Amino acid sequence: WFLDAGKIGEPGKAVTKTTAREWIPRAVAGEIARLIDLGRNNRALIGNRPLKESDIAVLVRRNDEARLMQEVLATLHIPSVLFSTGNLFDSHEALEMERVLAGIADPGNQGLLKASLTTDMMGVRGEELSLLIEDESGWETWLVKFKNYHELWNRRGLMSMFRELLLKEKVLARLMGFPDGERRNTNLLHLLEALHGISIEKKLNMARLLKWLSEQREESSPTVEEHQLRLESDENAVKLATIHKCKGLEYPIVFCPFA
What we know:
It is built from 11 helices and 6 strands. The chain is α/β, with parallel strands linked by helices. A 4-stranded parallel sheet has the order 4-5-3-6, covered by helices on one side. Keywords: ATP-binding, Helicase, Hydrolase, Nucleotide-binding.
């Protein structure tokens, strides 16, 4: 499954780093797909059992390389999970949570509402947003929705309100459409749990909870154990991990595409 320089570059010329970076993940993903297919047909075994996705690990140096591998694997419909021990509040979902909650806390603020709607969580894209703003009835529908979420948050608390939002706006299903959808949903639900807990513990209203969330997202905020990223389910999924985070771990099959 190695790369043939003559097939991916110009004859007689060295393969550039950019070209190699584009082709290496494809080659690795293709080999992983081949092995998985052999396992499904009982032609590749680990001991006495067929090889499966969770027997395979891809070790990389940086998180962006892991995300690149995850995207390429997704194009071949191969499930994968990214192992990370970062800070929950450094995640993309923390930024999106802050934007959505800010829009709900002040539903009459058009700028905050726009920022909320254009998150991956809510799924309204740029051109769609422009059309929505021009459509008075469509824009009014969102205003009413966010006012209702605001009132529900006031009456029954963050957890009840956000569960309602997840259900009505189909947030979890939408995020699962991304290559790292399981990771996004894991982070989002972890954030909800953390915010609910601190709002009860410190009796925080909307404004104070948003201030607390903003402070946690600042670079100077320390990472406490309960705010470390949780692992996604790794059952029947290829494992993606940075080399320094997998010391002491063993995997039946390991790829190091960027070593």
